[in-house]
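batch_manifest entry 22 of 60
target: Polyisoprenyl-teichoic acid--peptidoglycan teichoic acid transferase TagU
source organism: Metabacillus lacus
requested by: lab member K.T.
priority: normal
notes from requester: please return C-alpha cells only, no post-processing; we will run our own comparison against the previous entry in this batch. if the run fails, retry once and flag.
--- input ---
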Amino acid sequence: MRVKKRKSRKKKWLLISAGILGLFILVTGSYAFYLFKSATDTINTIQEDIGRDKSDKRTDIVDTQKKQPISVLLMGVDERDGDRGRSDSLIYMTVNPNKKNIDMVSIPRDTRTEIIGRGKEDKINHAYAFGGTEMAVRTVEHFLDVPVDYFVKINMESFRDIVNAVGGVEVDNDLEFTYDGETFKKGRITLNGDSALKYTRMRYDDSRGDFGRQLRQRQVIEAVIKKGADISSIAKFGDMFKVVQDNVTTNLTFNDMWSIQSNYKEAQNNIVQHQISGSGKKIDRIYYYIVPEEERLALSDKLKESLEVTPATASFQSN
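--- output ---
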C-alpha cells in the first residue's frame, strides 16, 4: 500500500512538473511569437522609400545572405513639428563580415560639397533640409564616392530614449567638462539617456570643436551597438520597439536586419574610426569646412577597400 502511495505521489509531482514546464514553454513561446510579430510590425512602420532598389554606385543589389560587405549611413536629424530640420550628424559605416570589422567616419556637418539635385555647393548637412533623405544620401555618396546601401535616420531628440532602452552605456571620456548643468569626469563613465544626449552635444568647450563632438557621438553609438547586441532581458525589447517606432526610419527590411544580425555580428568587435582632415574657411561670410581633394580621395579609397568594391562590381563615376 505504501509503495502504491509513493508511486502515486511521485506520479503526481511528475505531472505537476510537466504541467509547469509545459506552461512555461507555452508562455515563452507565445512571448517569442509576440516579440517576432512586434519586431516585424515595427520594421514595417519605419520603412522609408527613397525611390531606388540599390545605390547608383553599385551595378548589382547588395546581398546580405551572401555576406557581402555593406555600407550604412547613420543620420541624426533635428526634426521639429512643421520643420524637416537638418542632419545634425552624418556617420558613414562600412561593415565587412569577412574581415570582421567596421569602418566608421563622421562627416563634419559644415563640410562644403556639391549638393546633388541642387547644382551648387553648400554645407553637407543642408542637403537634408533641401531634399530630405534622398538628397542627403546622394550627396554623401557623391562626396565620398562610395555607395550608401542602407540608411538609418534617427531623431536626435530620441537619443536619450535609445540609450535608456538598452539600459545605459559606458564610454571612455578623455576630456572633463560641464555642459547643461552636468559635469563629465575623465575616464570610464556611465551615461543614461539624458546624460548621453548632453555628452554628445557639447562642442564649444572642446578645443577640437566639432571633431570632439563627433568622437563622443561615435563613442555612444558604438556603445549602443554593442550593448544592444548583448541584451538578454526579453522585457527590454518592448521598450526598444516603441522607441524605434517613434523615432527611427530606414530602408532596412526585417529580412535585412535578421541577416545582418546573423552574418555580420562579429564585425562589431573591431570598429575603426576615421577622421576627415580639413580646415575652416569663411566664404561670403559663411563658415565652411574645406576638405582637401587628396584627403577625400584617400578616405574614399579606404572605404572602397573595406567594401571590397572594384570597377567590375561598382560604378564610381562622379554624378
